Amino acid sequence: MRFLFDLFYLLAGVALSPWLLWRGVRTGRYRQHLAAKLFGRVDVPPTSASTVWFHGVSVGEIHLLVTLVAAFRKRHPDWRVVVSSTTDTGLAEARAKFPDLVVIAYPFDFSWACGEALVRVKPAVVVLAESELWPNFLAAAGERTIPVVVANARISPRTFTRMMRVKSLLKRVLFRHVTAFAVQTEEYAGRLRQLGVGESRVVVTGSVKYDGATGERDTPKGRELQRLVSREPTASEIVLVAGSTHAPEEAILLGVFAKLRATFPQLRLILVPRHPDRFTEVAELLQKSGLPFARRSQLTEPTDAPVVLLDTVGELGAAWGLADLGYTGGSLDGKRGGQSMIEPAGYGVPVVFGPHVWNFRDAARMLVAAGGAIMVKSAEELEAGLAGLIGDPARRRQMGETARRLVNEQQGATERTVGVIAEVVD
Question: What is the value of pTM for the model shown?
Answer without folding.
Answer: 0.80
